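Crash report, auto-generated. Payload:
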Amino acid sequence: MASEETLMWTEKYRPRTLNDIVNQAEIVSRLRTFVEKKDMPHCLFSGPPGTGKTTAALCLAHDLFGEYFQGNFLELNASDARGIDVIRGVVKDFARTMPLGEVPFKILVLDEADALTQEAQQALRRTMERFTRTCRFILIVNYSSKIIEPIQSRCALFRFSPLSREDVAKRLLYIAGRESVELDDSGIEAILYVSEGDLRRAVNTLQAAAAIGGPITADSVFMVTGKARPEEVREMIGLALKGDFVKARKMLHDLLVTYGLSGIDVVRQIHRELFNLDIPEGWKAQLADIVGEIDFRMSEGADEEIQLSALLAKFAYVGSQIGG
Amino acid sequence: MKKLSRMLWAEKYAPRKVSEIVENRKAAERVAEFISNWRPDQKPRALLLWGPAGVGKTASVYAAAKELEYDLVEVNASDKRSLDEIRKTVGTASSLSSLIMGRKRVILVDEVDGISGSEDKGGISGLVEILKNTVHPVILVANDPWDPKLASVREYCELVRFNRIRSNVISSILARICEREGVQADPAALRGIAENARGDLRAAINDLQMVAEGRERITMDDLRILSLRDQERNVFDILKAIFYGKDAQKIVMAASSSDVDYELLMQWICENAWQHMQYPKELADAYNALSRADVFLGRIRKRQHWGLLSYVFTLMSAGVSLSRKTSGGGVPKYQFPSWVKMMSAAKARRNAIGSIASKIGKKCHVSSREAFTSYLPYIKFIIEANPEAGANLVKLFDIEPEVVGGLISKEVAEKVKKILS
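Recovered output after restart:
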């Protein structure tokens, strides 16, 4: 079983104890004092994806509970199990029973807590207060601003900084060494470029590129990301700018359904492609403004298809202005 | 079997005996009794079966005639010529000869309330004449027997009421048909069809046949076409009102007073607005308005602030439509929202992939959404590039073979299956 769990390199090379975490030094040292004192406040971990938030929470719990980890630790993903019902049900059931072992509390990790609705957060706040004695919460978010004030004020706030290029490169080289995979400089550069500081994506890219066999180079990395990010995005923008709204929209549907990209994936990719477009440079920032607005709306819960259709229509208009 | 399936199920499974009629049994028995006890001098002269459509009025006459071995002469009351024809043959002389010569007859006059009162004055009096003189049992059928123009007809008739059929009865009949047709059906789907039919068994059977066309299994999802089909005519009118309106308030009214679900209406507008926009500026403005409507909808969902709904309607209708500054040409051919179609087609696949994503998420400490974007593409790549390594992942995440096929190419899926077996 143990070998199964390590099939994904992100899991295989996920640090098991706080001592193994190489970056986020400040945060790690504070978490260590929690372990030493066997006490901790509720925590709010915020920071970009793939910077070690979940890992830090897991390591903290492992170090604290040791052999009692199983019964004392619960990880919930808020974006899978959001809403008041979950907070009231699962969380309460876990939080109100006594912990095992010598640590006087349990730990409940609520990952992607920014997905919780306002109502759920209010309910959570009361639960946090009620069960403080037996349960400490670690909320993990990308943006702490998405968490309501009353919860923020009850938590110790930890901001995870983006990983430096060196940190990511070092980790990639370490893993490549352990896996006996050859990773050249161009390969590292390419992975750094496509993963944008997200170590999870970087490691997944590394593993996928290694699956091809042979040394990992820029070429093999782009083979991987080429699969993950289809060419059609570029073609779709081209069609829209030429004014062929209908065809562009058809292509959009393909990207969303056939390729299974999320709306956010599509806009982010559009944003990257802007710089490769053969249009006067001055227009690129204007297009970026459109893209950013749509990105924002979708992350606020707007409908992907309608928003992206509107984006394509706007691109068609910009295209007509450039042309005329 | 294949040939038979072309037949309308509503006919194929029509009752052959009075005892096969489940609901409205008493009424059907009265029909049979009336036919078999008929005497040329009797009163009331005829039966007038009445009730909503598709509840078995005509079917019970057919079943009774068949069971009693009568020939059925069917006349459509709104067809004046056939009525004249009957009047001629139903009269004493010729009717006597038919009594002697052949099998007994029963005359069924359908859609009596369809007789046009004013244009076709002869219609009612012709019918009355038939009732007076007939030597055969006559049975009239109408939805609304209280129509004033039928007053003189009613005098000769005994009224027999047929009721709407309860939906649990309808769904059990649908289930039996499915069994006979070898169609697997979700009980919930059958209940859905039954309820949608509002007591009209014939409509329910027709709907069932339409839904079952080309399918071996019917689920709730398949019913989407049903309710949409009902609404479609309605939608076209609303779209026209939106896109051809000049007055903002009237346009908004057209959108907000329709019984089409507003999210679906938004999809219709999204699919079709471009056809009305001539210039890129108009196109951009129209879709911008629509996207703003959607933003408000998102706010409503988030905060349950339903007061914002009026902005949604204004933006999605007048906002879109009045983006056009030029006058538009002819009426375009409105298309059903392709996105809705694609989403329902892709739903099964997305569900399957969603369940993989959630398995990945649990093992890798991320949400299924994050697994979808930051694991699935890579796992897909690994399986394709290296089926040996991939097979282990398929096993680890407990990905079912059918789903593997949807995720990666067929050949690779075969390879993986071979490795795992």
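Post-recovery validation: The radius of gyration of chain B is 30 Å.
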